[in-house]
Design brief:
Length: about 350
């Protein structure tokens, strides 16, 4: 079943599937009544769905369920989907099973918009209910002040030292990733794409990040103001550390890899995990900084929960609540016990012990 993990590229799909994909995703005028359902998908969405469907086709081939004479939507049958879900459940987490099945439903609707896909939607809905995080995110989260203090001290120590070899450069860069994420928990895709003069701008007082709708998950303009405390660290990176790695001075990418080329999302992801695990004993991936931000707001200043959605760039506050607030029983129980203890101490100081027996019986 290991080969099922392979996601066939479009040119490896049967001709009928390639034709259906082309018809569903070809760009066109929004006023065109024949515009495919996938024509307006953003590039990351299209790529995600493409990979998911490639995995579906791999499954069909491996399980001898692929008949090239069948239409793509004919293959999306109850029996095939049931077998697919069962196979996925043996390989990936429940959340990922739901994600792959949801993508298959989206493709089915794109290939045959008028088809009866209610049965598939019900499967997706059931999988959504069953999905759950397989990793305890709360145990990997750290208080923002702990992360901030370490990052600033580490950056100061590196910049104040004499080493300017590539190892020191990479350490400075990785620490700056963390300093930015804890202050401004932007999505990994946006962090990786930052270009000097295109996304990163000097306002005269601090740096600001600007992204066009096509670059943002919510399809809206996104402007993020970086705190002034980060200014000297960003300046140091741009003026002193970054040039050490550059092979071509014309490269405008903010983040440079060890070979002198712009970094990709995967590289930043693993460097952040590695740096945080070495420091805090647990890996904190870039997305988890978003959880930390919202949970910190709820924990420390619950009256300011309204700022959480704009902070993360969410259109719907329910998205923030559903995905990021870590209101587990341990935290809730501790808050309750603290409240009861404080109330007891206040009443005791004011009234004494109301249950103390007076005299004898």
């Amino acid at each position: 079943m290991e080969s099922m993990r392979r996601c066939l590229h479009v040119h490896q799909w049967p001709e009928a599937d390639q034709a259906a994909w082309e018809a569903a995703t070809s760009p066109g005028n929004v006023l065109d009544e024949h515009l495919g359902r996938g024509a307006l998908w953003r590039a990351p969405t299209r790529e995600k769905i493409r990979k998911s469907y490639g995995r579906w086709l791999s499954f069909l081939i491996i399980e001898n369920r692929m008949r090239h004479e069948d239409l793509p939507t004919t293959r999306i049958s109850r029996d095939n989907v049931a077998a697919y879900v069962t196979a996925l459940e043996q390989q990936v987490a429940p959340w990922t099973v739901w994600s792959y099945t949801l993508s298959l439903f989206i493709v089915a609707k794109a290939f045959e918009p008028d088809g009866d896909w209610d049965w598939l939607y019900k499967i997706v809905a059931k999988l959504k209910v069953r999905r759950k995080a397989t990793r305890d995110k709360t145990s990997r989260m750290r208080p923002p002040h702990e992360i901030v203090n370490w990052a600033y001290h580490r950056l100061d120590a590196l910049h104040g030292g004499e080493d300017r070899d590539k190892t020191a450069v990479l350490q400075y860069r990785d620490t700056l990733f963390i300093a930015i994420l804890i202050n401004c928990p932007l999505r990994l895709r946006n962090l990786a794409m930052i270009r000097l003069g295109v996304h990163l701008h000097w306002t005269g007082e601090a740096y600001r990040l600007d992204f066009d709708p096509s670059e943002v998950k919510t399809d809206r303009y996104l402007s993020l103001h970086l705190p002034a405390v980060l200014t000297p660290y960003i300046n140091n990176w741009i003026e002193e550390w970054r040039p050490i790695l550059l092979n071509d001075l014309n490269i405008d990418a903010l983040w440079i890899g060890v070979r002198g080329d712009p970094m990709h999302e995967a590289g930043i992801y693993w460097r952040v995990r590695r740096a945080t695990e070495a420091t805090f004993g647990v890996p904190i991936n870039p997305h988890l900084f978003r959880d930390i931000a919202v949970t910190s707001v709820v924990d420390l200043t619950p009256e300011n929960i309204g700022i959480a959605a704009p902070l993360l760039g969410h259109i719907n506050p329910k998205t923030t609540e559903e995905h990021y607030i870590q209101a587990n029983q341990a935290i809730a129980g501790e808050r309750y016990r603290s409240s009861v203890s404080a109330l007891r101490d206040r009443l005791s100081a004011e009234y004494g012990d109301p249950f103390q027996l007076k005299g004898g019986i």
